[in-house]
Amino acid sequence: MLGTWAHNTILVDGQEQRRRSVRESFETDQPLDNLWITNAVFDAADGRYTDGYGKEAIPVVHQRTVIF
Predict the structure, then answer these.
(1) 12: closest CA among 62, 47, 46, 48?
(2) N or C: which end of the chain has fewer CB within 10 A?
(3) In this predicted structure, what is the pLDDT of residue 20?
């Protein structure tokens, strides 16, 4: 299943993320400047989504950090 509903993320004003229509955002040439820590105690990583929500590209920054 495709879409925001199926990917454990949020809707903004009932709108889904727009990334599916932004093909150049599917891959990067260089690593992203995101948090990435791994050691004997924990692993942590974060990520950001900034490509807008809905047809009108509602400007939102969605950021999350995962610690395992």
Answers:
(1) 62
(2) N
(3) 65
Q: Are 7 and 60 in contact (CB under 8 A)?
A: no
58, 50 contact by CB (below 8 A)? no
Q: Is 62 exposed, middle or buried (0-12, 13-18, 19+ CB in 10 A)?
A: middle
Mean pLDDT of the chain: 84
Q: Which residues contact 17 (CB under 8 A, 6 or more apart)?
A: 4, 9, 49, 51, 52, 53, 62
pLDDT tens string 22-62:
677 678 888 888 999 999 999 999 998 888 888 888 898 88
> Helix (H, G, I), strand (E, B), or coil: what is residue 38?
strand
